[in-house]
Amino acid sequence: MSNDGYKKEWFACEKHLEFILDDIVDYQAIAPSLDLWDNHRDSLRFPEACCEKCGSSPDYILTYFEDRTDKNANSNHHSR
Ligand SMILES: [Zn+2]
User: Fold this and answer.
1) Is the pTM of this model over 0.90?
2) Centroid of ligand 1 to alpha carbon of 19 (angstroms)
């Protein structure tokens, strides 16, 4: 495995962007970066992308990179 970082994408339509963003921040405790969906570029990279909530074609793409260089297996569970 040569993964230096962990990368995750989410897709959202205009209507569900806030919803999905809240969800990610809430449950994953991370803040992904937000980009407009670019049909020319992104539909090639993610041909099956659709809104996480309603399944329609996305208007936004949310990407999160986690730098794992300085992490060991001692992961903390989120506690509220
Ligand atoms: Zn949607």
Assistant:
1) no
2) 9
